[in-house]
Amino acid sequence: MRSSRRTRFRWGSALVAAVLVAAACGSDDDAGDAPDETESAAAAPSTEPASSTPSAPTTVAGSSPDDEDGPDERIVIDDVSGPVELPVTSDGVHALDEWTAVALLLLGVTPSVDGFFEDLVVAELFADENLDVGPPGVNLETIAARRPELLLGIGEPVLIQAEPDLEDIAPTAITEYAASWDDQIELLGSITGRDDEATAVVTAIDARISDLTARLDDAGFTGQEVSVMQTFGGMVFALGPLTPAGAILDLLGFTRTEAQSAEGAFGFITLSEEQLPDETGGDIVLGLRSLAFGGDDETIFDNPVVDTTGKITATVIGDYWFANHALAYWLILDDIAALLLGAGTPSTGTIEEIDAAWEALRTAV
């Protein structure tokens, strides 16, 4: 297992789900019927981390005699519904979510894409790349009108429910939500015939993590305690080790408080008001804000019980600190290098900053 492999979590749905879990635990009187997760793009992913690397794809020689112009090579992979056979092709690929589209772009594949997550960090990036971006959610008519040869996405409940209908349009693979970003991109590389490109992306991220780890160690940051917290819905949540950002902090040699080392609901740890002085008592305190909520939402630093005197502090963009694709990892590493090593300033989520990170990542690959 590579050092950078960790469970992925979706920013919006996971945090909303954590709020619901915490609220339900706090008051049975407030408990209501659970929302139908198949009807909402904000449905929560599975809390189970990937227990192992996904099964290796199996190539199948030859093509259907009725598809003489189609790809000669086919592949069998395990998606959320079991084994599926797909053409190995990089043409006519449609990404059912933005995170899959980011991975495909890094592989040199230009997909059409649905704006499933309404991810503001990558929305303008896709415009710069001249991608054909569809509406949020799953619009079968819009997808069919593109006449795709292949449909690829991650295992959000809405996409899982729609998979039978999507398969009527084109061969479809809905991959495991809990698979790590590098397992995801390697699988996409196999499906699109871009294995070498996938290896190059993973190698670039691993090299960046190794380099930054060494520089942080030289600067004396190894072992320092980091808190990363978000205020949301009147509650405070910390990013645990199962979130992508929590995993990166672990890889870089930082420590967390005992409370922030727990797995938590969907990777988030609920903190009480009484815990905040201890949870912000370490060396580095990061507060998250979200572009999805307008960028001016309350942060942990607005809480009067939080005293950050003598601490290293910063407000960072939660939209990509919760995402789990290569660009999000790169942006998080940029933020840490900027904050602790003086390599610029943490991103405020502008398109210029996102473009610069994107170009740096593509250059490194």
Note down, in words, how this protein is organized.
By secondary structure, the protein is of the alpha/beta class. It is built from twelve helices and 13 strands. A five-stranded parallel β-sheet has the order 6-5-4-7-8, sandwiched between helices. β7 (150-154), α5 and β8 form a beta-alpha-beta unit. α3 crosses α12 (351-364). The protein is globular and about 60 Å long. Mean pLDDT is 81; it is low at 1-11, 27-52 and 62-69.
Strand content: 15-25%
- Mean of residue pLDDT values: 81
Q: Provide the low-confidence segments as ranges.
A: 1-11, 27-52, 62-69
C-alpha Rg (nearest Å): 21 Å
Strand order of the largest sheet: 6-5-4-7-8
How far apart the termini lie comes to 20 Å
Oligomeric organization of the protein chains: single chain
The coarse overall form would be globular
Number of helices: 12
By secondary-structure content and strand pairing, the structural class works out as: alpha/beta
> Using DSSP, what is the number of strands?
13
List the SSEs and their pairings.
Elements: H1 11-26, E1 58-60, E2 74-79, E3 82-87, E4 93-95, H2 98-106, E5 112-114, H3 120-128, E6 133-134, H4 140-145, E7 150-154, H5 157-167, E8 172-175, H6 181-192, H7 195-218, E9 226-232, E10 235-239, H8 244-251, E11 268-271, H9 276-279, E12 284-289, E13 312-317, H10 318-321, H11 326-341, H12 351-364
Parallel strand pairs: 4-5, 4-7, 5-6, 7-8, 9-12, 12-13
Antiparallel strand pairs: 1-2, 2-3, 9-10, 10-11
Helix pairs in contact: 3-12, 6-7, 7-11, 11-12
